[in-house]
Amino acid sequence: MVDFTSSKHILLVDDNLDNLKVLSEILQAYGWRTLMATDGESAIEQAEYAKPHLIVLDVMMPGIDGFETCRRLKANPITANIPVIFMTALMDTNSITHAFDLGAVDYITKPFQNQEVLARIKTHFSLYMLQMELEKLVAEKTHEVVKAK
User: Fold this and answer.
1) Is 79 a domain residue?
2) 126: domain CATH number?
3) Would you call 129 exposed, middle or buried from its count of C-beta atoms within 10 A (0-12, 13-18, 19+)?
């Protein structure tokens, strides 16, 4: 069973400080560590430095928007595998499909329901941790096979 809260951290990205505070408080109440950024550039810097287990990303921000931020994160080998969940007020189909085309794992519209956000975060975090575990096992087995030759 994957432990959802043992020193796990999430990067929250939104230019609205109230949104960041509310979401951070919700997650911290369930034992999550949160990092926060108010724009795309600082989000990319924090993701490269801290390597969070998950990124929750708004679309409409000053400077580079969430879509461009996601594109840059997915193009960077250091951050490419970090799951990105968009959380935004944009509800049109084009925005939603664009987010998935850029590599997002989920899309939540504002206003959000606390329990839904927690459920989605737990699901994607679990999948991410299982993927990391599987990649580690494959690397170990590959090393064993190469060593045995």
Assistant:
1) yes
2) 3.40.50.2300
3) middle
Provide the whole-model pTM. Answer: 0.87
Contact indicator for 105, 84 with CB cutoff of 8 Å? yes
Contact 62, 37 (CB under 8 A): no
In a domain? residue 138:
yes
For residue 5, what pLDDT band results from cuts at 50, 70 and 90? very low
User: Both tokens of residue 49?
Assistant: 């430095």
Residue the block writes with tokens 């400077």: 63
Q: In what order do the strands lie in the sheet with 33-37?
A: 33-37, 9-13, 54-57, 84-88, 106-109
Question: Which tokens belong to 93?
Answer: 């189909």
How many structural domains is the chain composed of? 1
Its domain, for residue 61, covers: 9-148
Q: Is residue 144 part of a domain?
A: yes
3-state secondary structure labels for all residues of 44-90 = HHHHHHHCCCEEEECCCCCCCCHHHHHHHHHHCCCCCCCCEEEEECC
2 belongs to a structural domain: no
> What does the pLDDT look like over 7-39, one tens digit per residue?
789 999 999 999 999 999 999 998 899 999 999
